[in-house]
Each structure stands twice: as structure tokens, then as C-alpha cells.
Amino acid sequence: QVQLVESGGGSVQAGGSRRLSCERSGYIYCRSMSWYRQPPGRQREFVSFITHDGSAAYADSVKGRFTISQDNAKNTLYLQMNTLKPEDTAMYYCKGLCGGRDYWGQGTQVTVSS
After folding, report:
1. Among the listed residues 15, 34, 37, 43, the one whose alpha carbon sits nearest the alpha carbon of residue 78
2. Distance CA 24, CA 39 (A)
3. Which residues pair with 51 in a beta bridge?
4. pLDDT computed for residue 68 by the predictor
5. I need a labelling partner for 49 at 20 to 30 A (CA). Which of 4, 41, 70, 99 fits?
6. Residue 27 pLDDT greater than 80, yes or no
7. How many CB atoms lie within 10 A of CB 113?
């Protein structure tokens, strides 16, 4: 079993920054880790992923503003979010592909005000 716990959400003004964290426990090796988000009234959408060896990809909507990173020694995933926009308002979830299964965290809310 894998447990994922997100933190770092909160309220921020447009143009500001926020760093999300996702701590992983229960399974040491995960092939990849991802961030997803679900804006109010919309479906969950992909934000970014990173492989165990550090290859990363981003949704076009966040490219150049968000940076995904990980500390494998601490089993922690990060999402640095800069130049935030009101449309970034969403519940942010981390997902781990670990042992051939997807595991999800409970989410952390980010609210960006204009």
C-alpha cells in the first residue's frame, strides 16, 4: 500500500507563488509521480509528471510557470507554482504509479484571487 499526503495549498493573489508537497509512504519505489488538479465544476486534469530518474513533462497551461521536482531520499514530490492565475484555482492531487498501480492523495486546495 502507498499513502500520499499533499500539503501546501492555500489562498494566494494572482501573480504569486505557492509550493505544494506530496509525501509518500508505504512503498519506496514509484515509477512516476504526477500532479493533477480539479477546478471547480470541471473534470480532473493533468498538470505535470516526473519519472523516477527525473524526466518531466507539463500541461501547456502551466508550462514555464510550474516546476515539478522530487526528493527521492525523502520520498517527497513538489510542485513549485509561480505567476499564479485565477484559472489555476483547483484542488491539487498527487498520484503515484507504484508497483503497477495508481495511488492518489486526498488533495490540497489552491485558490488564486484576482
Report:
1. 34
2. 24
3. 32
4. 98
5. 41
6. no
7. 11
